[in-house]
């Protein structure tokens, strides 16, 4: 009887201990989350060799427009295209004065995705080439789409969808969007495939979208750690070459490689767009200890002319305009030098520049002056 009670007590004590440990594990996972990682997938920072789009272009005719097409007198290429098309359909219009405003010559563009198969469809973009005012309601006739080698890879046709419109009266014109451009979803059928056997490759190259020595080496290290063999090596800042291990399916290998996470490195760079006043400062930008003073000279000239008239019923004198000019000069004498400490972080740099009370335009000049003084440890790129 005593041993039975002891075994029961030990079982109950073990169950209680297990419950306590489980609760502690739950609380630990809830209250102490794992640190967030800034790593990116390889598929988001690099492209695989051969996996790319191909550009297609073609010349076509859009018909069915409501008087918003090309003026055939000012667009001879549209007239010739219309005459040639009618001749192919058995209609002879040579020597006949054709006056139609329902036809427009257009350029048709599309992107042929990688590994696209014959018979599948792709979207096409249609843009007016002549004097057409709108493509709304038009239909694109059969248009061959050519690649860079001059071969036909797709054929487009269909109803043009236009997002904009144009309404015009005698005193006012309203235009929304660009009515001379449109799209045809699934408007082209692929007729020719681009041969590329991915599974027969012995080596695969990864092309970095932002070439960098450090990022290329990190990608090679991540791939080698996953494969357990030195199969990847960077050949230059923008390329990592991976040797396919024997008896390995290339598609499965690339699927696994593109999911690996790597933290890309970046240059210390400041990008400036002087046209719009946009400033983008990279995370690695550092500034040596420097003192900054910013001030501007503002001159405001105000003209308030006054009219001087003679006294009532006066026989002498005449009405005259007397100029009154008020000139104000603001030299920003209240501005003082500001200190920006050396080796500051991006947040501290932004806070220091904002503390000077300046706008984006003046900040551009200050950053360029800091760079000229040798205190900005970054590259300035002006767009």
UniProtKB/TrEMBL annotation:
One Pfam family it belongs to: FlgI
What keywords were assigned to this record? Bacterial flagellum, Cell projection, Cilium, Flagellum, Periplasm, Signal
Q: Would you name any one GO CC term? A: outer membrane-bounded periplasmic space
User: What domain of life is recorded for the organism?
Assistant: Bacteria
Q: What biological processes does GO assign it? A: bacterial-type flagellum-dependent cell motility
Under Gene Ontology molecular function, one entry of this record is: structural molecule activity
Q: Write the signal peptide boundaries.
A: 1-25
- Places the protein is found: Bacterial flagellum basal body
Q: What is the stated purpose of this protein?
A: Assembles around the rod to form the L-ring and probably protects the motor/basal body from shearing forces during rotation.
**Family note:** Belongs to the FlgI family.
Quaternary structure and interacting proteins, as annotated: The basal body constitutes a major portion of the flagellar organelle and consists of four rings (L,P,S, and M) mounted on a central rod.
Q: Which NCBIfam families match?
A: PRK05303.1 (NF003676)
Specify the protein name: Flagellar P-ring protein
In the record, what lineage is assigned to the organism producing the protein?
Bacteria, Pseudomonadati, Pseudomonadota, Alphaproteobacteria, Rhodospirillales
